[in-house]
Specification:
- With 235 residues, the protein is of the alpha/beta class.
- The protein has a single domain, classed as Rossmann fold, CATH 3.40.50.
- Helix content is 36%, strand content 19%.
- The protein is built from 6 helices and 10 strands, in the order ββββαββααβαβααββ.
- A hairpin with a 5-residue loop joins β5 and β6.
């Protein structure tokens, strides 16, 4: 089942989500995208992004570099950057080198895009300038952007942070939640309202993200340009 042929979304509600946000139900087992694509997996910290990517791409969470699968998919998770820097900076309080970790993560995303082929990226999505930069860079490279958003109740996300052993500061958590709600409010205007030039958008709640079995990249024609698609639907 390709993003362009997903069933019509059914109304759904999750905490903090505007009522007009709609989700695909049931969740497709396999998502297919054109080979020259960036799939941006976004959600607040603790939403389950790394958990899903580790499961789908056979990762452990201990990697310290971009993972390239046998199928040629490059998977870029911010935890890889943290793992790479930690041995060098473990004596320094993490908040002091967090900006360096983010910078390394963004540089690795750009490097993966320069190499071509499919790229899957872990990113909170709550930083507007980062979303705009990715949209601009992908347009320059001729790469399609597809959005896979994982929505989570803030309390569940906080518990997810505690479970993984990496908890963001309370103030930072509130900021992520506030920005995420603004992102969700923009979704009904179409994928391009979230990331300029994005071609598709799929919104899953935290629980249903576990139903997804595979993200597959296949040669084929590009999807039509977005034109005000509803959230959860794909043009």
């Amino acid at each position: 089942m390709s993003p362009s042929t997903l069933p019509a979304p059914a109304p759904g509600a999750a905490s903090g989500c505007p009522p007009q946000i709609r989700r695909i139900s049931p969740v497709p087992r396999v998502l297919r995208y054109p080979a020259n694509s960036l799939v941006l997996v976004a959600g607040i910290p603790g939403a389950g992004k790394s958990t899903m990517l580790n499961r789908l791409f056979g990762m452990t969470g201990r990697e310290s570099a971009t993972v390239r699968t046998r199928a040629g998919v490059r998977v870029v998770d911010s935890q890889q950057s943290r793992n790479r820097l930690h041995p060098l900076l473990s004596a320094v309080h993490y908040p002091l080198w967090r900006p360096l970790m983010h910078l390394l993560h963004y540089l690795r995303i750009l490097a993966a895009l320069r190499r071509g082929g499919p790229v899957v990226v872990h990113e909170s999505g709550t930083r507007g300038p980062v979303r705009r930069l990715l949209g601009w860079y992908c347009r320059r490279r001729g790469v399609e952007v597809h959005l896979l958003l994982i929505d989570s109740d803030p309390g569940d996300a906080l518990r997810g942070q505690i479970q993984r052993g990496r908890q963001v500061a309370p103030r930072s958590h509130r900021t992520h939640v506030r920005r995420w709600r603004r992102l969700l409010a923009a979704c009904p205007a179409g994928p391009g309202a979230v990331v300029p030039g994005a071609r598709s958008l799929l919104l899953l709640d935290r629980g249903r993200a576990g139903d997804l079995a595979e993200i597959r990249f296949t040669p084929g024609p590009a999807l039509p340009a977005p034109g005000g698609a509803a959230a959860g639907a794909v043009p």
